[in-house]
Specification:
By secondary structure, the chain is of the alpha/beta class. It has 2 domains: 237 residues, QueA-like, CATH 3.40.1780.10; 77 residues, QueA-like (Thrombin, subunit H). It has 9 helices and 17 strands. A hairpin with a 2-residue loop joins strand 5 and strand 6. The protein is globular. 43% of the residues are buried. It is found in: Cytoplasm. Belongs to the QueA family. GO terms for molecular function: S-adenosylmethionine:tRNA ribosyltransferase-isomerase activity. Monomer.
Length: 343
């Protein structure tokens, strides 16, 4: 498909620079088979049904943004995928000043050697020493805010908690599964009281999620792979919900992509562990999910293509136009939408 079909104009002031406070006070746009309604995240218990299950991503964001020196040259690195115990693939700023075999000093006793430059310009970084890389990043790294936020303000200490969901448990993501940022213990208690269950899976979100689609046709775009896991207990539970008439509602596109990666043509979700580079565009037949809670996405992004596949391109273009007119806040720290294609 022509990537230009997924373009739209977004006023810069619609980009949220901080999350709503409290988190569950964010606005919610409901889209189902025949409704488009302005609601609030706190309405979720009334918008879902007893017997439904919400699926959260329990990945934890690591401080994956690093600034260092290669000699006299400033080098920036954004880690985006673990390749070994001490090795990470990283997008590099000022990459023209970096060669394979060069060492980068990130300060605080943290250094790494660059090698294996890929076609996309990324390098593999091997971190020096014996300390776990997670400890090194805690010393030298900062939270990797999306470029559309980081370009407008500096990352600060508040982001260490703001850019982490209440489900964050498994370290490894370099971007938050932001739909889950809206959830609080109070909201979870209300959902449980309404008979709505929840479970978790793990998908370590990579920085590739923010890369623009540079191809003119979706067929020519290559997705970056991300590692994920659904264990047998979770897969069995999701299948049982479906068998009992409940709906599987993914919280975030990361949860959705992993469920769809683990689901066979027969609609059965199976245990999964490994990389997925699934790319969902209009024409895709969803097998594993019945709904999606997600934030508002960038023009011409793979995520806007995904929601257009779920609800229809014209429906989503109209919904986003409505959201812009009504002052909804966009992107990672913004408001949410609940997409239920069958109502």
């Amino acid at each position: 498909m022509d990537v230009a079909l997924f373009d739209f104009d977004l006023p810069p002031d619609r980009i949220a620079l901080r999350p709503a406070s409290p988190r569950d006070s964010a606005r919610l746009l409901l889209l189902d088979a025949d409704r488009t309604e302005d609601r609030a995240v706190t309405d979720l218990p009334a918008l879902l049904r007893a017997g439904d299950i919400l699926v959260f991503n329990d990945t934890r964001v690591i401080p994956a943004q690093l600034e260092g020196m290669r000699g006299a040259a400033k080098i920036g690195a954004t880690l985006h995928k673990r390749e070994g115990p001490r090795r990470w693939r990283a997008f590099i700023r000022n990459a023209k000043r970096l060669q394979e075999g060069d060492a980068i000093d990130f300060g605080h006793g943290v250094a790494a050697t660059a090698f294996d430059r890929a076609e996309d310009g990324s390098f593999a970084l091997d971190f020096h020493g014996d300390e776990p890389v997670e400890l090194l990043l805690e010393r030298a790294g900062t939270m990797p805010l999306p470029p559309y936020i980081a370009g407008k303000r500096a990352t600060d200490e508040r982001d260490r908690s703001d850019y982490q969901t209440m489900f964050a448990d498994q370290p490894g993501a370099v971007a938050a599964p932001t739909a889950a940022l809206h959830f609080t213990p109070t909201l979870m208690a209300a959902l449980e009281a309404a008979g709505i269950a929840h479970t978790t899976l793990t998908l370590h979100v990579g920085a590739g999620t923010f890369l623009p689609v540079k191809a003119q046709d979706t067929d020519d775009h290559k997705m970056h792979a991300e590692w994920g896991r659904i264990d047998a207990v979770t897969a069995d539970r999701l299948n049982a919900v479906r068998a009992g008439g409940g709906r599987i509602v993914a919280v975030g596109t990361t949860s959705l992509r992993l469920i769809e990666s683990a689901c066979g043509q027969d609609g059965v979700i199976r245990p999964f562990e490994g990389d997925t580079a699934i790319f969902i565009t209009p024409g895709y037949r969803f097998r594993g999910i019945d709904g999606l809670l997600t934030n508002f996405h960038l023009p011409k992004s793979t995520l806007f293509m995904l929601v257009s596949a779920l609800m229809g391109l014209e429906r989503m273009r109209a919904a986003y136009a409505h959201a812009i007119r009504e002052g909804y806040r966009f992107y990672s720290y913004g408001d949410a939408s609940l997409l239920l294609p069958e109502g």
